[in-house]
Amino acid sequence: MSIGIASLETSESVNVTNAFDAANHGFIDVDFGFASQFSVKLSGLWVSCESISAGALKTITMRICTDDQGQNIVIPDTDGDISKGLTDSTKGFAVYKIDLNIALDVEKLYFFFKCNTGTTTVAKIKLTYERAL
Prior knowledge:
Number of domains: 1
Distance between the termini: 7 Å
Shape: globular
Oligomer: single chain
Helix content: under 10%
Largest sheet: 6 strands, antiparallel
Number of strands: 10
Order of helices and strands: EEEEEEEEEE
Strand content: over 45%
CATH topology: Jelly Rolls
């Protein structure tokens, strides 16, 4: 059996403050189209940040859920350091290693964010996964 590695992403932006906001989230369509329930191994998450406020903003906390209200949690609150750009400190990335085998029966995963202080905008979310081919 071989393993395929693929990614899904969104270019929908999410405004982030120092508190989770159920009305303000991103999502990725995960309808793989080959079964009503599918098993995958979530591998990694890349979060592109823009408009990073000046000052002490260093971490962004993410939560992944199967509902748009943040109640059905797949990945609990996980902090990631934001690495800011060398020439433009208002842009940066946070990367998370997930390593989770999961059976999904939903068509979307929802992403909620908060930062330790200040504000930022999540400009893009990229999720990688593995599945048997």
